Amino acid sequence: xxxxxxxxxxxxxxxxxxxxxxxxxxxxxxxxxxxxxxxxxxxxxxxxxxxxxxxxxxxxxxxxxxxxxxxxxxxxxxxxxxxxxxxxxxxxxxxxxxxxxxxxxxxxxxxxxxxxxxxxxxxxxxxxxx
Length: 130
Fold this sequence. Notes:
The protein has helices at 8-20, 37-50, 63-77, 121-128, and strands at 53-58, 86-91, 107-111. The model has no long low-confidence stretch (mean pLDDT 90). 38% of the residues lie in helices and 13% in strands. The longest helix is centred in the middle third of the chain and has 15 residues, at 63-77. It is built from four helices and three strands; from the N terminus they run H-H-E-H-E-E-H. It has a three-stranded parallel sheet, with helices on both faces. It is of the alpha/beta class.
């Protein structure tokens, strides 16, 4: 799960749902005043290299942050033995919210009014189950 600090409460809700389905997860690095930018990049890079998929949260954060994360995820795929099964954006639709300005083959936009199972997470969960 890749989330900006302002979307961490949602990240924890999604983590709980994944956990109930037996899906492994990794949350973003907890930030402090002592966290260095290089540590954040290294943590994200390792997660992208060794995870099966990535779910980028687009709730309270900016479209610029989301786009940067998606492009970085795509770039890291070139260093993996297997591509990510899915790069997904969890989008909480709101009136006037900026639409995702890019598309690539394994990118999926999940329109999610709530993080509950019955909305959009089943597609992501199915992609991760054997």
